[in-house]
Design brief:
This protein is mainly alpha-helical and about 230 residues long. It has ten helices and three strands; from the N terminus they run H-H-E-H-H-H-H-H-E-E-H-H-H.
């Protein structure tokens, strides 16, 4: 038991640092500083993909894309505190019926995952994602969550964020995206390695049309995100 007492304190300190202090410090830092890189970017580099990203503040990203992403990924983004409980309940029901757990991640949860974690569907990763989402919702305004998401989300092989994707696929700045182009970008988010907004499949085209319709119902506030 003596050796256990000797190692217990360092283990507790290490656990506190990894689970509490470091995420808190990074969350506070990234509230004002653009994240230089994300775990997914590093993983994709190791897999042989490029690293194409170009940070843009929210006001320099087309309102069409902001609305399209909210409509496609998280219709309740402006009203929840990080979790869409109705979507989570539906996902649990599908899982219990033998299906996959899909469609329950909010923009806040995806931002937490992109900033701090690796891709995958392990329950331990989902648990960490939920834990880190609480940090973002408590310490960031919705405007910042959306801004970071739109700058680090994977939108193609080695392509991250609205500006890089806009330049790559449409030859224009993110500020100049049309409603149709924004909907096409939003349509590839669930599977950006196999879907292309520049050469949309029939499925992507149909999904983009639906997103375009739903985006008309999304209202943005003066901060560029939520009313």
């Amino acid at each position: 038991m003596a050796w256990l007492r000797r190692v217990r304190r360092p283990l507790l300190v290490a656990a506190f640092t990894v689970l509490v202090a470091l995420p808190l410090a990074l969350t506070l830092l990234f509230r004002i500083v653009p994240p230089p890189v994300t775990p997914l970017m590093v993983i994709r580099l190791a897999e042989g993909y490029r690293l194409d990203k170009d940070w843009r503040p929210l006001e320099r990203i087309s309102p069409h894309l902001r609305r399209a992403v909210i409509a496609a990924e998280d219709a309740k983004f402006c009203s929840h505190w990080g979790f869409d409980w109705d979507a989570i309940d539906n996902a649990i029901e599908r899982y219990e019926e033998g299906g996959k757990v899909l469609g329950a991640s909010t923009i806040s949860m995806q931002t937490a995952k992109n900033l701090f974690l690796w891709p995958g569907r392990l329950f331990i990763r989902k648990g960490l994602e939920s834990y880190l989402t609480l940090y973002l919702e408590a310490l960031w305004p919705k405007e910042r969550i959306l801004e970071v998401y739109l700058n680090v989300a994977e939108l193609g092989p080695g392509i991250y964020g609205a500006q890089a994707a806009s330049r790559r696929y449409f030859g224009k700045d993110a500020a100049d995206l049309t409603a149709r182009e924004a909907a096409l970008l939003a349509a590839v988010l669930p599977d950006p390695l196999d879907r292309s907004p520049a050469r949309p499949s029939a499925y992507v085209a149909r999904r983009a049309a639906l997103i375009d319709l739903r985006a008309d119902q999304v209202r943005l506030g003066r901060d560029g995100a939520c009313p």
